[in-house]
Amino acid sequence: MSARRTLLTARRILQQLRHDPRTIALLLLVPTALVGLLAWTLAHKPGTFGSIGPKLLGVFPLVVMFLVTSIITLRERSVGTLERLFTMPLTKADFVAGYAIAFGAIAVIQSFLVSTLSYTWYGLAHQGVPWRTSAVALCAGLLGTAFGLALSAVAHSEFQAVQFMPAFILPQLLLCGLVIPVSQLPAVLRVVAEVLPMTAAVHAIAPLQSNWYYVGQFCVMLAYILFALVIGASTLRRTTK
Amino acid sequence: MGDSSLSTFEVADLRVVRGDNEILQSISFRVAAGELIGLLGPSGSGKTTLMRSLLGVQTITGGSARILNFDVGSPSLRGRIGYMAQSPAVYLDLSVEENVRYFAGVLRQSASEIARVIDVVALAPFADRLVSSLSGGEQTRVSLGVALLGSPPALILDEPTVGLDPILRRDLWRTFENLAKTGTTVIVSSHVMDEAARCARLLLLRDGMLLFDGTPASLLAHSGAASYDEAFERLIEGAR
């Protein structure tokens, strides 16, 4: 693995996005606007936005980055650029880490925008530490990117990749504690919920927990990121049938 | 520049099987440094599979293929074989220059090399244009430019002149001939016979078998045909 080739790859991915202002706008503005819309719908229910809003900061980066990464890497396979890179001295780790860095950077900017507006304009009370919110958003973005990379090996077309999103994301959305607190789920579902990556992101953003609790949630997220990156890298094949 | 007595490519009994299909059946040939080889055959004959095998991105079932004394797929060969696939295999949402710069970075090439290859494929006026806004022929040239980065000792070009106008075709063939003269081994696949006749040596594939290996003149003599197109048809159909 080479830091130079990894950074070149990350820069190239960001350059691709730079030429596509509409995608950048969608990546950055849609989550921000959605949280704003949620705050507005809950305007007459004091306290509700305070409990749901922060959780979304852990959910959005995961969803958005999952979708974007799976499609952009799939394109890289179908257009033939991945095959070309594999005839060159680029390792699978360079490739995967390049994607993680580029989309990790986007996730940080996205979470900065969403949390800044949430704590100011949308009127979210300061419950947590802002740096923890940003760290959760970064991890959630990396989770999405890492799983998106892994998925792009399974999906055979962009069309399939889009179909995978509800299969991968929606169950987690139902179980992560956004709709019903995890503690109130039926016993079996509670066990399932506790081991899902999105639940860890939501837990990590919850206020008023012990430091060890947060450390545990971050460890779960980091373990998942590494796991998915390894899966993503190992499913990349230099030779194909 | 290579020692011309040294084989650049040594393919022996190469076989590729995909499912129940034998895509390549016992292909054997050697290529010396500086040869310009035309790889011919109808579509589905195994040309692309053979080229991908040489590049080390195709899973090989049996036999061996060595390039510059390394087994294909060896990490030592990465970056030493310029490859142009049938699809452009460049980033459509990057400019010409950004594409070349990225691949040049991966190959550790200098800034002057970036300018050189853009010049060789005559894309200097379009350097800042997004590849998606270019015509098919121009996109093909971006891909060729990337393949030429670092002047690799071997070039594998899969139908590089498809969709190009006659002038550009002629210029590209001159480029290939000049590269071969300076010691680069060039394998070009094509299904246009008149064009392929510019190669010093032709390999003709059909149904994964090597039907013919020789000079264009001996192809005419061998088949008793008056034109290259006719010779091609006779060989392909005669083998059925």
Q: List the total number of helices of chain A.
A: 10
What is the assembly state of the chains in this entry?
heterodimer
Number of helices of chain B: 8
- Termini gap of chain B: 41 Å
How many DSSP-defined strands of chain A? 0
What structural class results from the helix and strand content of chain A? mainly alpha
Under CATH, the topology of the largest domain in chain B can be stated as Rossmann fold
What is the largest interface, and how many residues per chain? A-B, 25 and 31 residues
Write the layout of secondary structure elements.
The complex is a heterodimer of chains A (241) and B (240).
Chain A: H1 3-18, H2 21-41, H3 48-79, H4 81-86, H5 92-119, H6 130-154, H7 158-175, H8 187-194, H9 197-205, H10 211-235
Chain B: E1 7-18, E2 21-32, E3 36-40, H1 47-55, E4 62-67, E5 70-71, E6 81-84, H2 96-106, H3 111-120, H4 136-148, E7 154-158, H5 166-181, E8 185-190, H6 193-196, E9 201-206, E10 209-214, H7 216-223, H8 228-238
Parallel strand pairs in B: 3-8, 3-9, 6-7, 7-8
Antiparallel strand pairs in B: 1-2, 1-4, 4-5, 9-10
What does this structure look like?
The complex is a heterodimer of chains A (241) and B (240). With 241 residues, chain A is mainly α. Chain A has one domain. In chain A, 78% of the residues lie in helices and 0% in strands. The radius of gyration of chain A is 18 Å and the shape is globular. Helix content of chain B is 34%, strand content 27%. Chain B is α/β, with parallel strands linked by helices. Chain B has 8 helices and 10 strands. Chain B folds into 2 domains: 7-80 and 153-238, 3-Layer(aba) Sandwich (Rossmann fold), CATH 3.40.50; 90-151, no CATH class. In chain B, a hairpin with a 2-residue loop joins strand 1 (7-18) and strand 2. In chain B, helix 2 packs across helix 3 (111-120) and helix 7 (216-223) crosses helix 8 (228-238). The termini of chain B are far apart. At the A-B interface, helix 1 and helix 4 of A face helix 2 of B.
